[in-house]
Amino acid sequence: MILRETELSLLPLGQLKPTGWLKRQLEIQASGLSGALDQFWPDIKDSSWFGGDAEGWERAPYWLDGVIPLAHLIDDQALMSRIKGYMDYIVENQQSDGWLGPRDANVENIEATDEYDPWGLILALKVLVQYHQISQEDKVLQSVIKCLKMMDQHMDESPLFNWSKFRWFESLISIYYVYEITQEAWLIDLARKFFDQGFDWKAFYKTDEIRTPNQRRGSWSFDKHVVNNAMAIKANTLWWRVSGEESDRTFAPEMIAILDRFHGMVTGVFTGDECLCGKNPVQGTELCSVVEYMFSLEQVQTVLADPRIGDRLEKIAFNALPATFSPDMWTHQYDQQVNQVQAIDNKDHMWTTNTDTANTFGLEPHFGCCTSNMHQGWPKFAASLLMTNKKQGITAVAYAPGEATFQSHGVDVKVEVITEYPFRESIVFKIETATAVQFPLELRIPEWATRATVEVNGECYEPDANTYFSLDHTWDGVTEVKLNLPMKLRSSRRYRGAIAIERGPLVYALKIAEKWQKYNEDLPYRDEPHCDYEVFPESPWQYALALNESQLEQSFQVIEHEVGEFPFSPDSAPIQLAAQGRLIKWNLLHGWAGTTPESPVEKDRYLGQDLEDIMLIPYGCTNLRITEFPTL
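Above: the chain's sequence. Below: its structure in token form.
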């Protein structure tokens, strides 16, 4: 059995480095919770994975899954040194039968049983193969092989259940990695075993259940769990490498379309608190689902090479991801809302399974899984911007500043991406080769970029939107390619006729003045800078937009500012939209923005007769916001 070849391949970790604002964002992350958790938070610092007595299931592997690429992308020597110590401990303490880490999950929540759910082990194998890319240590590879052989036998006696059953496809990451090195057939048989014992996501998505919002308080299920669904977007597409079934290869876009239709948000994600819950903009979605959705798209793109997947990846990365952190990344939310007018400890909430603190900012609001799993979002995105293609060229999957090195036909190539995208329209590719070499440079042209241009060597091209534009060129010395992606304003009608405004890959939301107030100061580990906060509005939020939907450019003024030290911050948003709106009767309900008034808003809801100047900023720069506006 031969593993089917992907259309694109991720560059080995370390061959792509962030620059510009993206490097700064990763530095902010490393200086925040991501780089500090192992120094003070017991579930990492004292993890059973590292010889301690704290949680010994998913949390330490989750943390490593994000900080390994983070540390190596920005060459954080101190963090890399600590990571090496943890990885050495895991490998050197592997048990004789191949088991890695503790055999007792040692965690108290709904999935804890007398039997160890091997999800934590599957996750650890993902971590080890990622680490092997960097270290190239044979002991790491042999540790993975030994563990996979143990799993092959273990699954005969104890089939997958609970989380591992619903996340079976995550095992394919490590299985495929080892197979591509060793070409040993037993690994494909093991992949089949995981598939046979795993949940059938394709069948589930053909039922009405996936379309039905979770509305009953306390209702919870594995199949409708928001993070499971975010992970599962890649399930059948990855499985296609074994099955060869076209319906597997193309199933991810079908899943995305269903999720968009019944649970989708304008930010590109879908709701879930913790289970799928419809299209109301106050329902929210979990941070873990944001980062896992991004990782799924990055994996799917290697198989499909579909420009729409890149569009979706950018939308989530530039909107939903940064919006759920404080600008300094020392605090985060468990659950973010598209219309989020306060983030408080709210006993009157309407979550189905989340608790009072789910959308506060803090160390571990509601539940600590996001505290351990939130770290992979930015680093894996940065490592996926450029991929190699079958013609030994390079494909731009998503756009942000960075540089990559690779070989084409034996020639060393360096590609530098110079840009302030998504805040600006222009992207320059500087390609440098030691000698002349021919290969294609493939540029993703987003679906929204209807008048894109590409300039190279005095020639100008006008590529179609929603395509990859290929420059199959002989590169010699230094060549610059300039891509311009005009960002026209766009609108879409959403829940109860509300309107959302987009420009390029960015979604825009009302800028609301904020008051951050500490709470939970009596809880352990809440000292500066990793405190818990409630966030209250300090300016009105009850606006209906005044606009001409057919002539949006006349309704907004685009204002550009320098991309500063904190790219995603309400105080230093690199771009703004000046607009007008009218205050209307729209009150809090259950501590949230009340039901969005129907558009057009009836005049008896008006508060005063005058329009007011208001400011919209990128959604990712907001902590409080209105994103789906009623209109006049």
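Residues 109-113 have pLDDT under 50 and may be disordered.
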